[in-house]
């Protein structure tokens, strides 16, 4: 990382009096979120951080809230939408109760790559001729899901900043995931921070990345070989028949 600042230093719990949180209800009762509340926030590591865990463990809830509160605004023309899909009516209210502590020289660059919302976002980009210069003149929504994701990575992840991804592997092949891993490593070396919610053991293998495992215990730092995700995939690949005989009818 050299002398690069840690752009996003910490997320602080800061309940809003306008939207009083019910700590017994979703999303505040999710163990990972409850731990964040109890500890008053969450330190954000430098470089690349992976949020890992089962469905419902809070990965997407956290990454969407972090993306909503980091002051991303980009560098260039006001006509170009360079920040990624915005908030959704389905988003949790967690973002109302968090505050970002950023470095005094934090970059305004960043992007939220949100798999479930990218098609609509790219269609809006293609429908606005003012956007063409910022996206290389490409028609993004006419490509395959994976190709459009790769185009986003090529055009929007070049500036040092703070980037957020929610299950980027959803659209990517094995080789494309390897290309994403190489990009993440390059971004880290240049001074960017990237926070990724993922189910991919391939991406989580990135050397030097911080691995935060979410589950009924809350949030814990984990080594790669100790991740439930990695152990489960290894067991399945070593003997898929042992799993399948219990799942499939004779």
Report on the architecture of this protein:
It is a single chain. By secondary structure, the chain is α/β, with parallel strands linked by helices. It has a single domain (8-247), classed as 3-Layer(aba) Sandwich (Rossmann fold). 32% of the residues lie in helices and 18% in strands. It has helices at 31-38, 59-69, 118-126, 145-156, 174-190, 201-204, 228-238, 240-247; strands spanning 8-13, 41-43, 48-52, 98-102, 110-114, 162-166, 193-197, 210-215, 218-221. Helix 5 (174-190) links the parallel strand 6 (162-166) and strand 7 (193-197). The longest helix is centred in the C-terminal third of the chain and has 17 residues, at 174-190.
Please outline the helices and strands:
Elements: E1 8-13, H1 31-38, E2 41-43, E3 48-52, H2 59-69, E4 98-102, E5 110-114, H3 118-126, H4 145-156, E6 162-166, H5 174-190, E7 193-197, H6 201-204, E8 210-215, E9 218-221, H7 228-238, H8 240-247
Parallel strand pairs: 3-7, 3-8, 5-6, 6-7
Antiparallel strand pairs: 1-2, 1-4, 8-9
Short descriptors:
six-stranded mixed β-sheet; Rossmann fold; 32% helix; 8 helices; 250 residues; alpha/beta; 18% strand
